[in-house]
Amino acid sequence: MSRPHTHLFDIDVSIKRAATATAPAEELLVMPVWTPGSYLIREFERHVQDFAAKDAAGQPLKWEKVNKFTWKVTTNGSRDWHASYRVYANELSVRTSELNSSHAYWNNANLLMYLDGFLKSPSNVRVIAPDVWKVATGLPGVPGQRNTFRAENFDVLYDSPFEVSNFKSLLFNVKGVPHRIVIDGEGNYDPERMRRDVQKIVETQVELMGGEVPYRDYTFFLHLRSNAGGGLEHANSTSLGYPRYGFTIRGGDRATSASPNPVVPAGSDYRGFLSLVSHEFFHLWNVKRIRPDALGPFDYTQENYTRLLWVAEGITDYYADVTLRRAGLISEGDFLAAAARSIQSLHNTPGRMVQTVEESSYDAWVKFYRQDENSINSQVSYYDKGAILGLLLDLEIRKRSNGAKSLDDVLRYLYTEFFKKDRNYTPSDFQKASELAAGGSLEEFFSKYVRGTAELDYNAALEAVGLRLDTGRVTGPNGQPVERANFGADLRQEGDRLVVTRVYAGSPAYDQGLNTGDQILALDNARMTQTLFNARLAEKRPGDLLNLTIFRFDDLSTLLIKLGGRAEGTYRIVPLPAPTEAQKRMYRSWLGGQ
Ligand SMILES: [Zn+2]
User: What is the pTM of this model?
Assistant: First the structure.
């Protein structure tokens, strides 16, 4: 990092082969095209420049590129040679890298090439940084060598990001194992409260997974920026981006350690931070150790396909909230309201009838990470539906086993039987593990909901714990549902333009010809803004006509849309009128409380 403000990392790769090994005349250096956990080919090689190679005596070696991510070096049989290059890094996200005058953050898959055929070989990383900056990484240091770290193989190397700056650290121990939160950037967080709540999340998940802490230390990298977001999991660290002023508690208070009640009120920004921490931390088990078939060891040159992202991401998301509830950080009401919201959101996604959650997992590389205007109508999120399937599967196992087993047992079983035996699990292994806990076949569940697109039966699952889904239907005096007007498109105000951002398949707007990208100038000949449009729509009845004046590309036209009807309102999960003792017992063992 000789000139941080240029965003250029100077990389020197030193290759040393054992004296006993034969060395070929030509060798290949490969730059990863993706980084695990973020399932898109990102072509990190596009930021490489100024490549050169030389032998141990400093004599230049010939080289050429043989594809977009591979450099072939004519080493003439040298056992000891170097490559040097620079990498431009000016994009801060959990999966990319940033170097500037205030800090350096990087993912090694963005920066460091590997020698083809040697992903299992160890490596050392020596960081040469401005003296005033500290170095944080999940890799162990090499004793006696300043800022030098050891990776036992390249999967470990590429799983270990670095933060190099004047970061702040919050420290705590769980079962004697050190944890730290490394924070770059300012924000309205209360350090004591953050430390206490993150520690609770760690303790709760360690207990849930059987009480063993499976790493020697753990680092939370946290970047606070006004527009930051997202997380990426690693085996003994995680990288988190979060809005710097996103720590308020509803009511305008800051999240403080002084507050005697640990429960964060529903709707607080701070809950978003705790959910992110809880999700990413749980990944250290679910995906980093309990590994789906194709996810590790990795192929860094192409897509690594799996049908199990709904388990790896969706069930992790389910446990993010389960953890917050068990840790006492959110209320039962908050947990159930969030579940009802995700059920409603799934129900408003026409793509749930088009794509299975296995297909969604498999095609993440070309679909989930490449959302467009058709995604809502052709895709289902393996996060969203996966989390709901986690809830349903958990309740199904609890019901079938009369409360003796739960989804927790499935995860602990996979941890013991697969991770501990150094095996990855397949879709059928996951189904078998679930059936073992349930004590019987779950073929119908998996064929309808995982490999199929059947509508989910929420009430069959919720009934086990004395709850039901209320879809907010209102009935009139004659018992007929009272319908509200249904339009079927999302709009956004962009400056003085009102633009259609999404049109839902099967809705009146879709069937009668509205397009994503249409600009709505007027409704019933009156100029429209989003606020006005929403107000006018709220006055309409099913069957009423909307007379829209639109620009489609460059052309003005009118469009007449007859509104449909919709009986459903806001979804809620509510208690059954007279729950049995068994239902109450099952509820308490699931969520605690009453
Ligand atoms: Zn995740």
Answer: 0.97
